[in-house]
Amino acid sequence: MYSFLKFLCRIILYPINGMPKFENKQRIPEGNYILVAPHRTWFDPLYFALAASPKEFAFIAKKELFKNPLLAYVLRHANVLSVDRENPGPSVIKEPVKILQNSDKSLIIFPSGTRHSQALKGGATLIAKLSKAPLLPAVYQGPLTFKSLFSRKKAVINFGDPIYLDKSIKLNEEGQKAVEQQMQDAFDKLDKEINPDFKYVDPSSEK
Fold first, then answer.
1. Quick one: pLDDT at residue 119?
2. pLDDT of residue 168
3. Positive or negative CA dihedral for 108, 111, 117, 121?
4. Is the C or the N end of the chain the one with fewer CB within 10 Å?
5. Rounded CA gap, 91 and 82, in Å?
6. How high does pLDDT run on average in the chain?
7. What is the pLDDT of residue 79?
8. If we measure between CA atoms, which residue out of 131, 127, 135, 129 comes closest to residue 181?
């Protein structure tokens, strides 16, 4: 199902918006990793998964998306894990760690949590610490709404250097903030590599 959905994404996105540009794929590490990125549009997970192909990914999504039985079926077969953001339990961390350690799948996480938040949260760091998988920063620049995909503005994905957490790092407030700053610095650098004048504008704020 995952391979079929990836193929489906290609035959929908590429004719509409053209061939995307994937930069610095040589920075992608061997083995499993946690791809971390700012969440800028509802379809950027699709571009990240396509950019890092043939690697297969698991994703984390809010449980509300699973209310529709048909959508829930598709999400589960696309390696999407359900999370209750209001009352997250231990499985929010345990399941992704298990996937990274016991399968050939990597993980895509948006540390900000939502498309409308730029504040980084700690889940990705804790999963990286427990699984011993590196964090791989990446950014998406391009259309931000489905309508703007038809403008043919090129979608660009840029990969950064992996962030390997020191085994001795303590995930207290100080340690967490240090890793979050590493991620944010990486995002800023990657955006500038694509476009030195880039500034993200949330499309919902323009309505």
1. 52
2. 83
3. positive
4. C
5. 10
6. 88
7. 87
8. 135
Report CA-CA distances (Å) from 99 to 78, 88, 151, 182, 191. 14, 18, 38, 24, 29
> In this model, does residue 30 exceed pLDDT 90?
yes
pLDDT at 41: 93
Give the Cα separation of 125 and 172 in Å (integer).
11
Q: Assign 3-class secondary structure to the chain.
A: CHHHHHHHHHHHHHHHHCCCEEECHHHCCCCCCEEECCCCCCCHHHHHHHHCCCCCEEEEEEHHHHCCHHHHHHHHHCCEEEECCCCCCCHHHHHHHHHHHHCCCEEEECCCCCCCCCCCCCHHHHHHHHHCCCEEEEEEECCCCHHHHCCCCCCEEEECCCECCCCCCCCCHHHHHHHHHHHHHHHHHHHHHHCCCCCCCCHHHHC
CB 20 within 8 A of CB 142: yes
Residues 147 and 145: their CA atoms lie apart, in Å, by: 5
pLDDT at 120: 59
